[in-house]
Amino acid sequence: MIGIDLGTTNCTLAFKGENGIEQFQILQQITADMEGEKPTLPSFYCFPLEGEPFLGWYARERGAELPDRVIASAKSWLCHDMIDRRAPILPLSDPKMSPIEVCSALLKHLRTVFPGEESALVTVPASFDPSARALVQEAAEAAGFGEVILLEEPLAAFYAWLNRHEGDWREILHVGDTILVVDIGGGTTDFSLISVEEKDGNLHLERQAVGDHLLLGGDNIDLTLAYLAQNKLGREHPGLVHAVRKAKEVLLGENPPETFDLTLEGQGSRLIGGSETITLEREEVENLLVDGFFPIVELDETVQKETRSGIAQLGLPYARDPRITAQLARFLRESGSPLPTAVLFNGGTCKAFSFQKRLATLLSKWSGEEVKILPNPDYDFAVSRGAVYYGLTRQGEGIRVRAGTSHSYYIGIEGSAPAIPGVAAKIKPICVVPMGMEEGTELMLSDEKFSLLLEETALFRFFSKASEQGELKELHPIETLLQANGEGGNTVLVKLTAKVTELGMLELWCVAEDGRKWKLEFDIRREEASQAALV
Predict the structure, then answer these.
(1) For the chain, how many structural domains are there in total?
(2) What pLDDT, on a 0 to 100 scale, did the predictor assign at position 209?
(3) What's the chain's average pLDDT?
């Protein structure tokens, strides 16, 4: 059993070993003429001026010198629905590979670590839409993996925390607690809410809400700090962004020094004089980054929206408002859940103690009581470790975070009757997901067969009900064309099977007697979140 964190900035790999869940050291190119093992595989792919392309650690280092010949943040391109994500568009300066090819190359490299493994648990941002999730699945299959289970990253981070606290989590968390998972990585920010409830005398964990996909993270912070260093230097320097990362970690950590000397290699004629040194002061860095990305805002703060230019360069759809606290306020307002009483920090950006302190202070201000910070997080490896732990819960081991549906879901079946002018055909709702059906489970419906339309664009109508006595509410329909995938007419008799995936997707499978099957996907979480916001 292996867990893969396909990170925007770094990938990690964990597995179930003899001593529990372990982290694997990944063999990769470290310098031009040396290979070595590192606990992370940087998500970079470089095309050098000469020789074969390479990925990982050395690709990231070379990327500082050859920014136009390196691909970074390929995973974020998978959720860019305004481009053809299978087209060779990266790097933008000289396109050679598609986003899905880059992700597949990273996964294929990780698979060489365990050449005998054919299945994996791969994590994705909680907010990835169905098409982006399907592309990750496709990339994993192209890398040689057979069975692939996708799991959301903040939930994986919480599973890792549960693994570390199996013996005492019930003493740290109590009935009525709501845990906010704040996962800020190199390229993205993810929020999730998990509640602690009591059922049948036992503590019960349930995932309540996930946030929107935000391309906002450590990369934005590093770039901001690089601009500060550039102003002090008085000119541009290609290695600034890479150099300031260390300064950020030191000046924003616990017990930071008052200053940090940033040493840069000289350029051009300055090579004669060797390196150059810039001094960054802790106070100016805190004022710039903490107040810039984590300002004190009210809970009703709105996210700023800028008018976009009609013509723009091709690029990632970055969040326009860099204030992470404003993005968090919007998420909490729209979640329909109680305000958090505890917070778990994850991701490399959250190593900065100053960021944690500001967020905890703001959460306490919003709720009116002190919000506790969950102890012993694992900022770098929690996601891959948590993926393995989740795999163990599927086998009956460990503590499962439940995520049952809050509504019943139905598909509309058109009745068979003679046409009557001015009278629409009757639609019979068939329940495909009963209320409370847990994510990761599958339900075979009755033996009744239905006629499925193929080779023509058709409309599939979905409904939901909030309680047994509640009224049916029609949801967004799916309009699509299903291929016949074989001989026969444009209709086929099928039985229905429903599955709610670990990512909150309803997969409705239409299965014919000859083995052919078709899948309809519906995003349950997005519907439940929109309904909660309306209430």
Answers:
(1) 4
(2) 82
(3) 87
* Nearest partner of 58 among 25, 35, 90, 24, judged by Cα: 35
Q: Domain for residue 342, yes or no?
A: yes
Any domain includes 393: no
51-77 pLDDT tens trace:
899 999 999 988 877 888 999 889 989
Mean pLDDT of 393-406: 82
- For residue 228, give the CATH number of its domain: 3.90.640
Comparing 123-132, 188-197, 442-451, which segment has the lowest mean pLDDT?
A: 123-132
Alpha carbon distance 503, 525 (integer Å): 8
CATH classification of the domain holding 110: 3.30.420.40
Same domain, residue pair 73 and 171: no
| Tokens standing for residue 271 | 């090579």
* Rounded distance between C-alpha atoms, residue 42 and residue 57, angstroms: 5
Q: What is the pTM of this model?
A: 0.82
Distances (CA, A) of 415 to 419, 450, 455, 471, 504: 11, 10, 21, 20, 29
Half-sphere exposure of 450 (CA within 13 A, CB side): 19
What pLDDT does 437 receive? Answer: 84
Backbone angles phi, psi at 227, to 5 degrees: -65, -40
Q: Say if residues 150 and 123 touch (Cβ distance below 8 Å).
A: yes
CA–CA distance, 241 with 236 (Å, rounded to integer) = 11
Shared domain check, 251 and 206:
no
Of the pLDDT bands very low, low, confident and very high (cuts 50, 70, 90), residue 490 is: confident
Domain stops at, among 128, 153, 178: 153
| Residue 381 and residue 39 in contact, taking contact as beta carbons nearer than 8 Å | yes
471: closest CA among 438, 530, 425, 429?
Answer: 429
Please, which residues bridge with residue 510 across strands?
Answer: 496, 518
Q: State the residue range of the domain holding 447.
A: 408-534
Looking at per-residue pLDDT, the higher value among 80 and 535 belongs to 80
Domain-located, residue 299: no
Does any domain span residue 120? yes
Is 139 found in the same domain as 55?
yes
